[in-house]
Design a protein that fits this description.
This protein is α+β, with helices and mostly antiparallel strands and 197 residues long. The chain has 8 helices and 6 strands.
Length: 197
């Protein structure tokens, strides 16, 4: 695997339309030394209730964000896949415990950076700030759309939207995780899937 190519793919995602704002060599030039890590299926990149000071640049694989209720019930909040980014903004910026876990669903290759060190360097580099701004904007848009979906859409509409937004994951995820993510039981999801076939 050519890590340089993987990082280039990630940068294309990270910078979005600002493709000329950051180059792979800029990471070295600006002293951004990430650690290349491999996580296997079933491992956790961060755990709910523990400190999570790192930001992860996903070069390969996919993960899910999940939280556990006090009685042990799982709730799948979202999914992230390569090329992409993962981590807890709240835990990183406030130096506090994560409110959720990140579980590896497919072997992940990623670059890990200590958030504080990364941000201290990034904040003086307009290209990185523009890219990060764009990333945050997309995350907030997704959050608003998810909140709208739970307030205004039927379970079937939420499922169809999930399929549209997650075409690369739709056939790889267990139905119970999809059901949890859209806020219904696996039985209800089976009924919807049967109706749509």
């Amino acid at each position: 695997m050519n890590t340089q190519n993987e990082l280039q793919d990630f940068l294309a995602y990270f910078t979005g339309k600002n493709t000329s704002s950051i180059e792979v060599d800029d990471f070295v030039k600006f002293g951004l030394k990430g650690e290349l890590k491999h996580y296997k299926i079933g491992q956790f990149m961060i755990r709910q209730g523990q400190l999570a000071p790192k930001i992860y640049f996903l070069l390969k694989g996919y993960v899910r964000y999940l939280s556990l209720s006090e009685d042990g019930k799982e709730f799948t909040q979202s999914f992230a896949h390569s090329p992409g980014i993962a981590g807890s903004t709240r835990a990183m910026s406030r130096k506090t415990n994560a409110l959720f876990s990140i579980e590896v669903l497919d072997d992940v290759l990623c670059l890990e950076f200590d958030w504080l060190s990364f941000f201290n360097i990034m904040q003086d580099k307009p290209g990185f700030l523009m890219a990060y701004n764009s990333l945050l904007e997309n995350l907030f848009i997704k959050k608003e759309e998810r909140e709208y979906a739970f307030a205004r859409q039927t379970a079937e509409q939420r499922y169809l939207h999930f399929l549209q937004e997650n075409s690369q994951l739709r056939d790889k995820l267990p139905l119970n995780m999809i059901a949890s993510h859209i806020g219904i039981t696996p039985i209800a999801l089976s009924r919807i899937r049967k109706k749509l076939t």
